Structure prediction request, 1728 residues.
Amino acid sequence: MDRKIIIINGPNLNLTGSREENVYGNKSFGSFYNEELLIFAEKNDLNLEYFQSNHEGDIIDRIHDCIGHKDFIIINPGALTHYSYAIHDALAACRIPAIEVHISNIFSREDWRKLSVISPSVKGIISGFGLKSYKLALQFISES
Amino acid sequence: MDRKIIIINGPNLNLTGSREENVYGNKSFGSFYNEELLIFAEKNDLNLEYFQSNHEGDIIDRIHDCIGHKDFIIINPGALTHYSYAIHDALAACRIPAIEVHISNIFSREDWRKLSVISPSVKGIISGFGLKSYKLALQFISES
Amino acid sequence: MDRKIIIINGPNLNLTGSREENVYGNKSFGSFYNEELLIFAEKNDLNLEYFQSNHEGDIIDRIHDCIGHKDFIIINPGALTHYSYAIHDALAACRIPAIEVHISNIFSREDWRKLSVISPSVKGIISGFGLKSYKLALQFISES
Amino acid sequence: MDRKIIIINGPNLNLTGSREENVYGNKSFGSFYNEELLIFAEKNDLNLEYFQSNHEGDIIDRIHDCIGHKDFIIINPGALTHYSYAIHDALAACRIPAIEVHISNIFSREDWRKLSVISPSVKGIISGFGLKSYKLALQFISES
Amino acid sequence: MDRKIIIINGPNLNLTGSREENVYGNKSFGSFYNEELLIFAEKNDLNLEYFQSNHEGDIIDRIHDCIGHKDFIIINPGALTHYSYAIHDALAACRIPAIEVHISNIFSREDWRKLSVISPSVKGIISGFGLKSYKLALQFISES
Amino acid sequence: MDRKIIIINGPNLNLTGSREENVYGNKSFGSFYNEELLIFAEKNDLNLEYFQSNHEGDIIDRIHDCIGHKDFIIINPGALTHYSYAIHDALAACRIPAIEVHISNIFSREDWRKLSVISPSVKGIISGFGLKSYKLALQFISES
Amino acid sequence: MDRKIIIINGPNLNLTGSREENVYGNKSFGSFYNEELLIFAEKNDLNLEYFQSNHEGDIIDRIHDCIGHKDFIIINPGALTHYSYAIHDALAACRIPAIEVHISNIFSREDWRKLSVISPSVKGIISGFGLKSYKLALQFISES
Amino acid sequence: MDRKIIIINGPNLNLTGSREENVYGNKSFGSFYNEELLIFAEKNDLNLEYFQSNHEGDIIDRIHDCIGHKDFIIINPGALTHYSYAIHDALAACRIPAIEVHISNIFSREDWRKLSVISPSVKGIISGFGLKSYKLALQFISES
Amino acid sequence: MDRKIIIINGPNLNLTGSREENVYGNKSFGSFYNEELLIFAEKNDLNLEYFQSNHEGDIIDRIHDCIGHKDFIIINPGALTHYSYAIHDALAACRIPAIEVHISNIFSREDWRKLSVISPSVKGIISGFGLKSYKLALQFISES
Amino acid sequence: MDRKIIIINGPNLNLTGSREENVYGNKSFGSFYNEELLIFAEKNDLNLEYFQSNHEGDIIDRIHDCIGHKDFIIINPGALTHYSYAIHDALAACRIPAIEVHISNIFSREDWRKLSVISPSVKGIISGFGLKSYKLALQFISES
Amino acid sequence: MDRKIIIINGPNLNLTGSREENVYGNKSFGSFYNEELLIFAEKNDLNLEYFQSNHEGDIIDRIHDCIGHKDFIIINPGALTHYSYAIHDALAACRIPAIEVHISNIFSREDWRKLSVISPSVKGIISGFGLKSYKLALQFISES
Amino acid sequence: MDRKIIIINGPNLNLTGSREENVYGNKSFGSFYNEELLIFAEKNDLNLEYFQSNHEGDIIDRIHDCIGHKDFIIINPGALTHYSYAIHDALAACRIPAIEVHISNIFSREDWRKLSVISPSVKGIISGFGLKSYKLALQFISES
Prediction:
């Protein structure tokens, strides 16, 4: 049976491709999702779903809904990375292996971007590979 | 006339009973609410209502709605305890006496759980007694 | 053509006028908006709109919606000022000039109110002039 | 068989009722103990004893004496709360469940009162309910 | 009777217009004062005076001289903003309402520019609007 | 009627005169007390008493005993200066004007000696004048 | 031969008596100087001079001028206490025994007032006795 | 032409497989390199080399040698991650795109492991996927 | 003539052997003292005495009493290690060489246990060898 | 044409030679200037001028006057080094290459002397070579 | 069978005896090793080896080589004590009980010498007994 | 007899001239050494030697070798400047006057580059003059 995976994107990631292109690149997440991620998922028997919200509460609700329905969570919490202990707790509570991804290398930007309060409750972090960060997460899952 | 009280639970507390049981116990809040809190309230002429949300904004809205309608707020802000200055301000603005409760002893866990930004705007804190923390809050109110 | 401006108010600012009057004054934002801001806007050919929410996510959504539709954002993020890196990122991403306003002088209050995480992504800050802070922002825009 | 409980009060708590009344109220602990706590204890088959000292060493000695003789410790360490690692260690060493109580809400006062070095070795904390804080502790025990 | 206002500029502000133009713009304060501020003042019955010094002591002396002679102080302390507790004390001692202005958005520059030790003794802060920051201060006064 | 004053010395001050003479001088407190302080007190109608203890608890007890019996407390808390919040609270609770004295200039020694947790509850501090620090305190009282 | 002493007052101390009376009292320094200090000096064969400036540089110049002409310096650096390392160095360089005085108890006010950068280069500190702080300094000198 | 890649492992990584297995797993790097990485490299036309040293200087020398000879560096600096600014500078100086990998999730371990001084000079970070972290780095390169 | 040595144990060390055995071992100090330390002392012509107290003041008194009567002090201040500047001062004042011992490795436990305020006034520290830490101290003395 | 250079010395440097000789040496700056610096300047076709003030404001004024008239500034800001952001800004604004010199090695003295707030706006720093530090600065200029 | 022990000395310890004698004494480690340690080892059936290097990498290599060949490591990491997390990891990885020794009392010297990053991975610490610190370590081992 | 001097360069300085040219310039150290430093040395009877290593241990070894053979050390520790307490100790132990040089102005770059742990053990620091920093050090020596 196919493994079920959800990609959860946090605040402002809906603007990827048209936002600070020097940092985030000029490809929209939507195009990348359709052209690369979905195709990779299909080839590797992964059932992939995508969710984006600018609302911390919606993201927590969505993580809760994953209990019993998803095998992996790939999450880019956006700026919530740096203060949402509630998402940290949601991931810890749901017990589904999670991978934290970032488009840019958050460790070479402003000081406040260097701390992720989410990290202690995820399995691994992938940061800095542009939209390919998401694909690397999928590749890890496909070989697990 | 009965005093009117609301219990407000923050993010992830809907999972109590099925989440990190070693920390939060294995009884759901729902069962405890029905079996202990409601019965205690009835016996002591307290009008009790319950609200849970994973959304900071919903919690603030709910606090605002209490103005003129509730006599006490019992609040467990979950992980929002540690960064939601907006809930702090909502409690300060509504001028209804509030009691902050925590299921676990937040002062003996991770460092970041030791600071509550909510505390300066509540009357008192009860932390570490499992779900009984809520009942202690009710007991205080029933004797006030 | 009239310039289009939106005023975005964050959590608890709907209570202005009936909340800690010694800090925030006793005039409601609604009255001030109708009696002073709208009239000033009309006289100066400014198209003014108002939005308030206690939800960080709604504020971010609203900022996104401004892209292509607004020329200026006047924002009072309330207590979100002090931790919402997501609003910081939203303002930075939308590239619309923004003015951060505060009713009280946030620099003469509690220590945690002295830091705005929003400020690095706005053009300017106006703080401490009561509801007149909003009018000063409009006056700046009307002369820009 | 009745459970045996001791209330241990630290420095300056002998002055309660005649000390900074705006913070600590104007009822002496002695009156409250006789009029409320002892009566509650009797009704609930709790064997209650009271001890106060301004000496850290006496408090530690008294905690040691509890080993094998008491089932619960209710402790208000007064200002020792903020630096007596020795009391922390005494409580940890004696292995008797302890409840830390404070008359005032220590989290809304001076910064140095916000940190309790005792907390990591107690079961729970009750802070801010005036002398009722002690009663809440007894109520928790009576239902345990 | 006309209200009397003084604008006090601190160190290096005499160079505005020929100093780091990307930060401070290329218009001299003198031209702006004559072309915009004086004219605005006249139209609004404000009696305006201007004072600049690179000497902290001169600025304090000047603030003292305002007692009994000025109704408002508009002050841009330049780099003294960040360490002159003596100017803070002078403003607090003279009891004349003061407005702190900055040409650039000091909150989006070097870390040490983010802290104003002056702010706790002023009514309000206006920062980031170029030389228009001064005019906004006058506009506030003219409507007070 | 003579005013009643107590000098309270904290830990290790019984060794003054034979301890680190380069810091504390080589005169014992006892000799100084008899030869200078008592004589000054007599001449100025001050009723003087002296108390020394190495026990924080004894010092607190002694401060409590002053309530209703002493008009001034002169206290040199020794090393307790730097951590005894309990003595701070005792002084605040007893409401008797207190003067904190130190033999050496504590502000020019190790970093940890620069902070007095006692200071916020005393009227004034005299530090660095050798044993004369005590006499200055008496002189202030005699002229009050 | 009479000993020669200078009192040096820093910024804003010329306003004493008409500035924040709840902190600094309502007697002017001038009156106190004439009515108490000069008279005490005369009686005790002390040659007393007084100097006040709001300029750090003037204070340093004046300290330099004391070399070879004064036996003691009594200095109240006002707010310069908290940042003028240059005055610290001037006092250290001139090698004249200096006494630092403060009218109010600087250790019970804002956090930034608790640190004196001057203290390491003075003999002793007297803080909190109102204008009497100056007299205590004179008394110490008269008995040295 | 094949792209040339070097994997550089820092101190103690030669012990992987026989060191703290709960953290690092029980497979030796050597086996993994031969069985997975080399085979993947061959299939994807990547020229792969491996280097390990417990010497910071050797690692820096090796990075210098890559100039003109390698197209990518995959580096796991081991504990040097947390203090070797010299490796940071070496990577910055050689201008070859580098990927920082860690076997364990360094962000969920001791506090000092949460800061990488290397990160600002690499393209991206992959942390927490066991030895698969290296393979993900190769996968990224193979698709670049 | 035999050298005279005292072992001084601080708070809670009377419980060694029956307290957190995983940290402190399960042998009581009394047994170890009789079976190992006294016998070693006798064989090596050391005059050994033992003192324990939970009272900081008693420990300071006892250190004072050592002046002129003891040649070495072996001290395990228990949790007082981390805040008793008064014991630090007592050891510095008595000028008897002192050795600080700890049963557990205090540097691998909670952060607050990593700082000893006592250490700057002792000759050496021995930490982590169980009760043998005391014997090592004796061995050093016996060979000095 | 000769290059024009000014040496600007800050507070207390007029005392060099008669001030803390162990730190600053016993040669006056005046003698050194005449005997070494002027002669070197002459030989190397440098037009040299000297200015000293204990007033921050005078130093800033003097820096401003250099615009268009000097090719290099050699500055020893004395203790102003550690807090005068205004001098930092003056140097940055005047755009003349500046060299910061110190007689002593400021990095091996008190902690507060280790931070220069001036450094970010100068070309280079020379510290610790006694009065020769000034000559090294001249030597650099003469070869530029 | 004899137990096998290695003493590992870090940077600069080869200079002991001829380096800062007031801190480290004037006996060379070599003499002490031959005259005291080897003889003690022989008498107590301990197989002793000695290794010194100024290279962090060599020390790590040597620790690795101990696996399977040594029963105890006595290590004085010299200044590497304060930053070599790599040695910390090497000791943790090799699982051989280690004792950290220091010649001087590192806790009474510069602030940066008070923190050992090695300590959490050793059994015990002995600091301050001169070269005897090594002998105490051997004595502990000989009795284990 | 000629004085003997060694220049010691730390990690990555072998790349000078081909590394971040905007920071370090585009001249190689080798060329500069041959074309300027050696010639200057010859003219001034200085015996000059050069040593570079990326290995902290080699640098320490080389410093030790200087004992008795060199009169001055000129050291640019590269990034080791910021953490190598071992080099600090080596310089302190060898007692040869040392001069710390940096090509760039390290005080105007990243925060972590502002702290040199080496500085307290050198005579002086020269930073920011490009490769001329080395020559200034030689000039100082030639005139000493």
User: Anything to note?
Assistant: The CA atoms of residues 103 and 131 of chain J lie 6 Å apart. The radius of gyration of chain J is 14 Å.
